[in-house]
Amino acid sequence: MSTLDIARTEFALAVLYLNKAQARDKICRAIQYGSKYLSNGEPGTAQDVDKSTSLARKVFRLFKFVNDLNALISPTPPGTPLPLVLLGKSKNALLSTFLFLDQIVWLGRTGIYKNKDRADLISRISLYRSMGFSICTTLVEIGELGKLSASMKKLEKDLKNSDKYKNEQYLSKLQKSNERSLALVKTAMDIVVAIGLLQLAPKKVTPRVTGAFGFVTSLISCYQVLASFYHYSLIIAPFILNWAREAGVTT
User: Fold this and answer.
1) CB neighbour class for 196 (10 Å; exposed up to 12, middle 13-18, buried from 19)
2) Which residue of 8, 89, 129, 133 is surrounded by the most CB atoms within 10 Å?
């Protein structure tokens, strides 16, 4: 492809990326927690942006709880250890509950649901579900990293007489290990974010700390969504370019 075609393809990929509700949600999340960091809980423009962006994000999550309910009832891959199966199902149950309750919170924040005290209680319960989800996800990632580490060590022994970095299977496992390590860092930081939102340790986890951790995890999430595009962009690039030309995205 020519330089112009590459530029067109990259632009078309950016359009597809921004068209994803998940991508827009993570960008809004970065704005929300960046504003929280700047405001440090004090009234002002930054806090107003934090609150309005938080409310706007809830629209992207309408009926999203169905996805995790489906994952909850779906069969797990054969050979998965029972503790990881239980943690995975608990993770799905907690996230789907959080997303469902978050819809009631949205109704309360918009004034459709009039019982403010109950809406605040539901909001707090949903945040506990979110923290539980992050804890379960952290434990799952630790378990999966342990499995990957063991299989990589076994493969290294088999490849001791050759360059392991030229072995496709080893490189694939190494990539998965890097992805799970990043996911582990993100979920561990999200636990701190939940603690800050619930004000369980207000002296240590201040709004500024919550905002900083939330902003970093939002950037990681944006990268993770973008990485999923990058992995197959070379494969679908000709199709995207053709779509871009037909749709008039490029000239």
Assistant:
1) buried
2) 133
Report yes or no on whether pTM surpasses 0.70: yes
108 and 54 in contact (C-beta within 8 Å)? no
| Nearest residue to 47 (alpha-carbon basis) of 219, 248, 189, 210 | 210
Question: Could you tell me which of 122, 142, 145, 136 has the C-alpha nearest to residue 88?
Answer: 136
Mean pLDDT, residues 87-114:
91
Alpha-helix runs per DSSP H in 159-206: 168-198
- Torsion-angle region of residue 113: left (phi > 0), alpha (psi -120 to 50) or beta? beta
CA nearest neighbour of 191 among 179, 203, 205 = 205
Q: CA torsion sign, 173 to 174 to 176 to 177?
A: positive
Instruction: Kindly report which listed range (29-33, 78-82, 132-136, 193-197) carries the lowest average pLDDT score.
Output: 78-82
Q: Per-residue b/e over 112-134, b at no fewer than 16 CB within 10 Å?
A: ebeeeeebeebbeebbbbbbbbb
CA-derived radius of gyration, the chain: 21
Cα separations in angstroms, 25 against 18, 31, 86: 10, 10, 28
Report in angstroms the alpha-carbon separations of 187 from 115, 124, 211. Answer: 32, 19, 15
H or E segment to which residue 24 belongs:
helix 21-39
Cβ neighbours of 66 (radius 10 Å): 11
